[in-house]
Amino acid sequence: MPKKSLNENLHKAGVAKKDEFYTQLADIEKEIKHYKDQFRGKVVFCNCDDPKESNFVKYFSMNFEHLGLKKLIATHYKDANLFTKDAPYKLEYTGDKNGNRMPDPDEFLTKMIGTGDFRSEECIELLKEADIVVTNPPFSLFREYLIQLTEYDKKFLIIGNTNAITYREFFKLIKDNKLRTGYTNFNVGMFFVVPDNWEHFHHIDEDGKKIARVSTSCWFTNLEVEKHKQDITLYKKYNPKEYLKYDNYDAIEVPKVSEIPMDYKGVMGVPITFLDKYNPDQFEIIGLGNSRDNFTPNKNYINPYKIMRDGTKKNGNAINCVLAIETKIKPDDIYYISDNSKYLIAPYARVLIKNKKVKK
């Protein structure tokens, strides 16, 4: 990517409101405590973090000896500091020198040559040195950020949008067991520190900083996560009267993870919340019913229309790219119609799975 274009794109991300969120220390502590043994002897890189403000830097410096880290590196983009907009600098910390358990700016901070962009040559050289990358990357650059981590084969623990699961590149990593959800915050959201000029916020904390909630934020990692090695306990047995079949794919609709039948041998469509409990030894992921990139429908709808809640018609070609359930009864919510079907409903982003441990 040309340098000018790269910097322009990052500047746009820098002013995007959801890119201006700072992760709270409590959320960092709750998640990272589960990976203690995996950090021992490692170089940790926080490459979207102002060393003076970031709670990631604060956490790792305060717990440097406790975690047994080898080195902590932190960099930030030149306009990323919410409060000071300081020029970019980097931190390289190798442990406590005077008993204060924090890096001393005059000893560990050095100015950067470039902008601090995580895609710059300067930051990529630091990335090559790192063993594990831990940060909250810009939401608007999340796809590009993740691709870079996989290209350089890095271990990571990062915060992202739950909906990123539906990205083609992202979902493939989950399917191949190269990416998984972390221990905390999935499907419940997270609270972040936001700039003073932020108008919509949840509350003001004891330090006078505005706190906003993002309901779709969670942790993603390729580190080992014990909960993904545990089987989901299944209670129900398959009854064809209780499970609808998709009209354009050979699979049944399972609206809740708790309703996955223990004895069904075929393909099932389940909500994406399943991925927070997914054990690759128990289930095989077949695809994702949100686009033809992730699954192949076996039926094509002719002249489809989307019927909105107010009864207006819109182009309905999207139904040919997602899982569809046919019904004879007119739905109360948004639905589709076509020349070769009755009423059609499109459930949101179902994960297509098969049970590897079918019980009789």
From TrEMBL:
Keywords: Methyltransferase, Transferase. InterPro entries: DNA_methylase_N6_adenine_CS, EcoRI-like_methylase. PROSITE patterns: N6_MTASE. GO terms for biological process: methylation. The keyword Magnesium does not apply. The keyword Transmembrane helix does not apply. GO terms for molecular function: methyltransferase activity; nucleic acid binding. This is Site-specific DNA-methyltransferase (Adenine-specific). It comes from Candidatus Amesbacteria bacterium GW2011_GWA2_42_12.
